[in-house]
Amino acid sequence: MKSLRNGLFFQDIRYGFRMLVKSPGFAAIAILTLALGIGANTAIFSVVNGVLLNALPFPHSDQIVSLFQKMPNFENASISYPNFEDWRRMNRTFTTIAAYRPSGFSLSGNGEPEHVQGEMISHGFFEILGLNPVLGRTFREDDDHIGAEPTAMITEGLWKRKFGGARDIVGRSIVLNDISRTIIGVVPSNFHLVIQNFQQGSQRNDVYVPIGEYNEPAFHNNRGAGWGMDAIGRLKPGITLQQAREDMNRVAHELSVAYPDVNASKQMVTIWTLKDEMVGKTRPALLVLLGAVVFVLLISCVNVANLLLARSTSRQREFAIRLSLGAGPRRIVRQLLTESVMMALAGGALGLLLAKFGIKAAIAAVPSTLPRAEQIGLDLRVLLFTFGVSLVAGIVFGLAPALKIAKADVSETLKESGRSVAAARTPAQNIFVAGEMAMALILLVGAGLMLRSLFVLWGLNPGFNPHNVLTFSVSAPESLGSQSAEAIRTALRQFHEKLAATPGVEAVSLSWGSDPMGSDNDGYFAIVGQPMPAHMADLPMALNYVVEPDYLKAMQISLKRGRFFTDADNENASSVAVIDERMADKYFAGKDPIGQYLDLNTNPEDQVKFPKLRIIGVVGHVNQWGLATDSSFPLQAQMYLSLMQTPDAAIKEGHLGFNVYVRTARAGVPSFQDLRQAILATNRDMVVFDPAPMDKNVADSIAAERFTMTLLAVFAVFALVLAGIGIYGVLSYLVGQRTQEIGVRMALGAQRFDVMRMVLRDGARMVGIGIGIGILAALGLTQLMASMLFGVKPTDPVTFAAVAVLLCAIALLACYVPARRAMKVDPIVALRCG
User: Fold this and answer.
1) What is the pLDDT of residue 411?
2) Could you read off the pLDDT of 129-168 as tens digits, one per residue?
3) Beta strand 559-562 pairing with 613-619
4) Please, what is the Cα angle at 582 between 579 and 588, to 5 degrees?
5) N or C end of the chain, less CB within 10 A?
């Protein structure tokens, strides 16, 4: 019996193959339609698989978490080093906690000085991640404290690029910021970790140094400042995430009691699994895209099902004969399902090939913010997914024609003459077309909402004019820091003068602190004359921008009241400040802030002391947090300080690095190299790096939204084309089946336009039902996109109406062609066909 079943199975395959070869045009169209749907699904699933489903490439990665300080203005705030040390000592749920903070370094002593990106990390960091160095060892506790011998780990890329992959690299020296460090290990090139303050952006880390040896007293002693430092930890076996949160909140509460002045607002700790920290923000968009591409596959299946229904009409006599000769209905259904599954598997194989190229295109197009992009590819799970989708698709689109044949009346079919087999109108085809219309409408509405969101975002004023503004970073040698504060100010003025004198430069400003749509620098402040809160942690905060007088001109930020800095606001003048309109509205409501004084000396542990600052002006608000997210971010207040009025101690601390903003008469003139040479002309040991047009920074702030919108638009176009083809195919089939009926109508006096109206009415009925269902479904499904939209409601009536009109127009165009063909039917010829 088993051998008989196997024989029948292979017989079905051979027969199915012959039937597909017999109709190559039909087979090619069906397989290609399925390949597009399956290929798109495979490509998107490979992204979802690589980013969301695959485990992180670290041993027992589910036990690794990210830790942040929770504060009123920040869910994921940085941790002060003293608090971190107490976290590590007082917790009961972690085997290890390790800290990290980003840091740039000037690499010298081996060719021209260059900037390298790096990270300060505490001992145990790589052990938490289970990372083993290519050569050497990781940091130990005795490397990680002030006074320890300076050590460093370098990446495999830097090892090969700068040291030629020398096997004796361990024990050799590397000079970072004029400090000679002993190389103790090489970090493998396959190490990828992108989380807050760790390898964010396009530039990857090249070096790692121990964080505990950072010889800055304020870093070790100031419990109120985070210095951009975060932490990761490994949970003890059997400890849940909730238990860890409760434990760390206990620790934070005890520290708030012990140090109420700085920790009163820090009674909570934010803990995420490392995977959630890496991919959490991208999950909604990827799931929406996966849902969208499933609709594309369903539309592809519907189209092929319609093709098979039409084709089954011509095969009714064939199957009637087989049934009359003893074949059972189950045998016929199995034969048809075998053929459809064969087509689906062929479409899956071709789709897999298309997906391979689609994945390459997707990786090239993904924004740099997409985490784990290196994990995207075709693995076993993706292959099994493709096979499963192909199998299910074959059954789904093969079921309708198979059931239709199985229910056919054999005697009635055999009574028909061999000249033609007139089929009754098939309700399934109408249902399929209506379903196609509904799914296409849902996709078009999703793409339309994203498109409208982008238009709203692009129309926003970021608070500055990014056009023709180039920003870059400069790193100075340690030798400059050994000089007096006045000498450093003189060097900064020389840099400014050289840049300003470069042909094509309209305005230039050096800057410390916050970088619009880039890094942020915040601090507490008090308003002189207002009551002080009980604890420093209850003071308000503002983002700080330390700039030169031409900053306003370079960035073209609007001046609302008063004035901005001038050259006279230097180290010899009384200290002044400028605030933005949001800070003025929030903290000076009902009175003029100009002439009021601010006090930045809010933390007694700070080594740097600022004089009282008199507010001299109010400027427009800058979208620091990006076009899409700035308005929802808790910290909005912004404060500008004069760079030359920076206290001596602070200017000696900050000399090592600063940003430059240059407004040029036209983009690219002068070039970055021209500006770099202008700075090097003043000091050959300066390192000038990381140029970026401000236009790009603004565009990057909505890169994720652009990526999602682009893919949704592509899928929506696919859906629109497939739906148009589907309705065209069904109406063409119906016109062909109703040729005799049309001939009779015309012989009895019906006009050609009556025939056209009849065909268009059939099409309009299917389209109308589909659009009605689609609108109802879209009203619910677009709610899932609410967090991805900006300035547009998920139920935006303009988008819904525009999409409905567009879909109607495309559908009626698809209806028009078969309607025109019906008009041209010759009644005499049609009646003869009867």
Assistant:
1) 52
2) 999 999 999 999 999 999 999 999 999 999 999 999 999 9
3) antiparallel
4) 75
5) N
Output the pLDDT for position 324: 59
Query: Helices 2-22 and 329-365 meet at what angle, rounded to 10?
Result: 60
Nearest partner of 221 among 262, 252, 177, judged by Cα: 262
pLDDT for 9 beyond 60: no
Percent share of the chain, pLDDT over 70: 85
DSSP bridge partners of 474: 658, 688
Q: Which two tokens stand for residue 650?
A: 């602070």
Quickly tell me which residue has 């912004």 as its tokens: 638
3-state helix, strand, coil in the chain (%, to 5): 55, 15, 30
Residue 243 token pair: 């238990």
- Angle, CA 492 vertex, CA 489 and CA 494 arms, to 5°: 110
Distance of CA 567 to the CA centre of its chain: 43
- Packed helices 380-406 and 283-314: angle between N→C axes, nearest 10 degrees: 30
**Weakest-pLDDT range from 39-48, 305-314, 791-800:** 305-314
Q: What are phi and psi of 446, to 5 degrees?
A: -60, -45
Q: Are 263 and 686 in contact (CB under 8 A)?
A: no
334-379 pLDDT tens trace:
777 777 888 888 888 888 888 888 777 767 766 666 777 777 888 8
Nearest to 33 by CA among 308, 290, 292, 291: 308
Query: DSSP 3-state assignment of 426?
Result: coil
User: Looking up tokens 């950072």, which residue turns up?
Assistant: 214
Phi-psi group of 274: left, alpha or beta (phi > 0 → left; psi -120 to 50 → alpha; rest → beta): alpha
List, for residues 70-118, the tens digit of each pLDDT value: 888 888 889 999 999 999 999 999 999 999 999 988 898 777 788 899 9
What length does the chain have?
834
Whose tokens are 């002189």? That residue is 528
> CA angle 37-349-285, nearest 5°?
40
Rg (CA), the chain: 35
Amino acid at 604: P
Write out the two tokens for 512: 């410390």
Asked if 363 and 50 touch (Cβ cutoff 8 Å), the reply is no
Angle at 522 between CA 517 and CA 525, to 5 degrees: 140
